[in-house]
Amino acid sequence: MAAFSPQQLEQLRQVFREELGNAGLRLDEPDLVDKAREDFRFLRKLRTGVDGVAAKIGWLVIAAIVGGVIWVFSLGLNAWRG
Q1: Where are the beta strands (DSSP E) in 21-66?
Q2: Max CA separation in the chain (angstroms)
Q3: Helix, strand, coil percentages for the chain (3-state, nearest 5)
Q4: What keywords appear on the UniProt entry (predicted)?
Q5: Nearest Cα to 21, choosing from 34, 33, 11?
Q6: In 10 A of CB 22, how many CB atoms?
């Protein structure tokens, strides 16, 4: 398996930078790299926060269903007792 030559690696880096630039992510200055990192950190925090909220809502739905089943069972038991 042959390794890339230094010229090929530079061409790949250039194409990669151009494609990221076309997507709106510029990395040609160190300050822009830091800003991009912060953007990705923000997106990760947002994703984990949304996942946490979704999990809590899921547990709330499960608790509501279990509570409903217990309530219906209690009503049936009270009706059976008279």
Answers
A1: none
A2: 89
A3: 85, 0, 15
A4: Membrane, Transmembrane, Transmembrane helix
A5: 33
A6: 8
Q: In this predicted model, what pLDDT tens digit does every residue of 45-60 receive, in sequence order?
A: 999 999 999 999 999 9
Beta-carbon contacts of residue 32 (< 8 Å; ≥ 6 apart): 26
Tokens 């217990």 label which residue?
70
How far apart CA 20 and CA 29 sit, in angstroms, is 13
5: left (phi over 0), alpha (psi -120 to 50) or beta: beta
Structure tokens that stand for 26 in this block: 């510029």
CB distance 35 to 25 below 8 Å:
no
Q: Give the predicted TM-score (pTM) of the model.
A: 0.54
C-alpha 49/C-alpha 36 separation (Å) is 20
DSSP 4: P
